[in-house]
Amino acid sequence: MAAPGLYYLSRPSAAPAAGGHPLLVLLHGYGSDERDLMGLVPYLDPRFEVVSVRGPQALEMGGYAWFAVQFTPFGLVLDHAQAQETRRQLEAWLEALVAAPGVDRGQVFLLGFSQGAGMALGAALHRPELVAGVAFISGLVVPQMIPAGDLEKLRALSVLMVHGRHDPLIPIQQGRASRALLEQLPLCLRYREYEMGHEINAECLEEVRGWLQEGLSPVTAGGQR
Predict the structure, then answer these.
(1) Of 14, 20, 110, 157, which is the most exposed, with the fewest CB atoms less than 10 Å away?
(2) Where does residue 102 rank: exposed (0-12), middle (13-18), buried (19+ CB within 10 A)?
(3) Which domains does the chain have, with CATH numbers?
(4) Beta strand pairing status for 21-27 and 49-53?
């Protein structure tokens, strides 16, 4: 699979089907890289082709980001203009990715952690025709992410939002406020909290795994949906 514009790693589907295989795109958090979330792959449905993409901003401390963030005593300060620019870059890359031969365009899912969760959801809200669902883990929703205009096109979009009650970086109050923002939109939202920090623990991973499997079309023994 080839898609210009962003660097990524991929793992092919273990069960390619005549009608195309499902695609899962992973988006890492601030200061990490494309290798991080690939550790989840052995626990997820092998029918997915998995693509893990690197954020475009290299950090002096090492790792990568999707946009600039300032850590202040009053909380995170986001560079919204840069985030919007990167979101548009991600959308163009994603459009090329899902157009590749062999991809079932009706079964494209995004999984983002922390800053990557925001990027995944922002892209899906603005281009819902490209995405069936988003797993939004330990992220933050802000009003700037929500597109203007007719939101009826979001009705087919599914979102799993998961947050840790002991998250020191994005406190649970902000997670619940993020949920409240999404509840105003006409999408299918599932919200879960777990006894974890800013992480993906075993319970969270099991929730994500099950949600992704629910989103896949059933496959018969002959490989046809």
Answers:
(1) 14
(2) middle
(3) 8-215 (3.40.50.1820)
(4) parallel
SS (H, E, C) the chain: CCCCCCCEEEECCCCCCCCCEEEEEEECCCCECCCCHHHHHHHCCCCCEEEEECCCEECCCCCEECCCEEEECCEEEECHHHHHHHHHHHHHHHHHHHCCCCEEEEEEEEEEECHHHHHHHHHHHHCHHHCCEEEEECCCCCHHHCCCCCCHHHHHCEEEEEEECCCCCCCHHHHHHHHHHHCCCCCEEEEEEECCCCCCCHHHHHHHHHHHHHHCCCCCCCCCC
Q: Which of 70, 45, 67, 71 is nearest to 56 (CA)?
A: 67
Q: Is the pLDDT of residue 222 over 60?
A: no
Pairwise CA distance, residues 21 & 9, whole Å? 17
For the segment 29-60, what is each residue's pLDDT rounded down to a tens digit? 999 999 999 999 999 999 999 999 999 999 99
